Amino acid sequence: MSSVLTEICPHPVVQAPMAGGVAVPQLAAAVSEAGGLGFLAAGYKTADGMYQEIKQLRGLTSRPFGVNLFLPQPETPDAAAVGVYAHQLAGEASWYETELGDADSGRDDGYDAKLAVLLDNPVPVVSFHFGVPSREVLDALRRAGTFTLVTATTAEEARAVEQAGADAVIAQGVEAGGHQGTHRDVPDTDRSGVGLLSLVAQVRESVGIPVVAAGGIMRGGQIAAVLAAGADAAQLGTAFLAAHESGAHSLHKRALTDPLYARTELTRAFSGRPARALVNRFLREHGPYAPAAYPDVHHLTAPLRKAAARAGDAQGMALWAGQGHRMARELPAGQLVELLAAELEAAR
């Protein structure tokens, strides 16, 4: 592991910044306290909401932690397709007795305001998803003392990350749960993504900066495998989704190991951008028709997903999960970090 990453997290274990209320301060603090790197997800929050969570996290740990930002998104190439999808979802709105969301609720996720907060009140680590920030942004964060990471799903994207001046790259394999961090404006869901071990090897040969491997990792032995392939650390999301401190809905946590949800699939059904989720009714019925329109579809379906959660109906929720979901362990996050480190040591 690179010297900087070793200083940030003694164990090569990074908790993925899962947006939507999962990566709460209590989870990030527990991971960091145990020697991993805990993360907050700024996605879908206001700049002030992000700042308040950072203050809360700082009250829980003095260890390094990270904050993840979503890059602003381009205009949707086919806005009419969003209207067609909204018409298709009318039955869902009626069923859950709610209104569809406003597809035009914003495309930048408050990016500039969040950056201003992070430059005025620097945090140890900042990562980026859905593209590459400008060199000016990365340089400004470096001057503030912040270590930066950017997600890539191909070796070509990893080279773009290095050229922009990021300190490290997150190599995200197709096995990963939640949103794929591809840089393409109109990413597809044709299952042509690169598997993690192959991706790590390709990225390691393509860039000179540290590599963090992400995608389907649930055990210390898998961390050993990606380290052997050339990674400096491993990022785990689904493994921490089931942790006691996770903010995930209890239905979501239970679904990870429920035999009813036998597999995952990349889908645009919930957000308009490829994301891996447990296959449920909503995904099966709407996935084939969802347009490539992020964050339009995310805004459109947000009230439906919230209503399904309130109704206790997991069949209408976005059950984000990686391919290793059946290996989830319901443990305190700190204990999970220690167990992963012990499994890693045994596998070496």
Report on the structure:
This protein is of the alpha/beta class. It has 15 helices and eleven strands. The strands form two sheets. It has an eight-stranded parallel sheet with strand order 1-9-8-6-5-4-3-2. A three-stranded antiparallel sheet has the order 7-11-10, with no helix packed on it. Strand 8 (211-214), helix 10 and strand 9 (233-236) form a beta-alpha-beta unit. Helix 2 runs parallel beside helix 3. It starts with a helix and ends with a helix. The model has no long low-confidence stretch (mean pLDDT 96). Belongs to the nitronate monooxygenase family. NMO class I subfamily. It holds the Pfam family NMO. Keywords: Detoxification, Flavoprotein, FMN, Monooxygenase, Oxidoreductase. This is Propionate 3-nitronate monooxygenase.
